[in-house]
Amino acid sequence: TFRQVPAHSASGSAFTDVDIPSWYHEGVDFVVGNGYMNGTSETTFAPALTVNRAMVITVLYRMAGSPEVSGSHSFTDVQAGSFYENAVIWGVENGIVNGKSAASFAPGDAVTRQELATFLYRFADYMGCDVSSRYDSLAAFTDSGDVAAYAVVPMKWAVGTGLINGMDESHLAPMAQSNRAQLAVLLTRLYT
Length: 192
Fold this sequence. Notes:
Layout lengths: L24 H9 L19 H11 L21 H9 L19 H14 L25 H9 L19 H12 L1
Helix pairs in contact: 1-6, 2-3, 4-5
């Protein structure tokens, strides 16, 4: 079960950079209240901060209940004992994320909208959700040709379920970097 603990309130804000009328405040409440994401400090959430691969896989790992891992990894850029090491092992073992190569996970690389859609698609499948819904055609978006081959099905699913919307009526912006506010909102939509 999920618990809703407000990240901020009308009388005072725990996060000084999260405004109550913002489009993402309910998402922040959800992810912080459930312990999936933390603030970047006691008083900031940093909604505009770009998310990286280590952040995203760590959040998904927490959402899965932070299961015990027994495997290992071969990535030379994943530090032993780092906050994301177990999440990376779990993510790779369960097919949610791949390395950029056999030796590199690239934990600090920014996550694009199409990569985030792919991570969420694989995570939803892992969690036993129905991932068969598809948007008929991404061709309605003028930049649909920018969607990488690996991300076509996840993007069709994400758009078809309403998880991801276009940046406007004609642009999907698959290569745009995702930020913490967007991640919080997408995770909230995923669970509602």
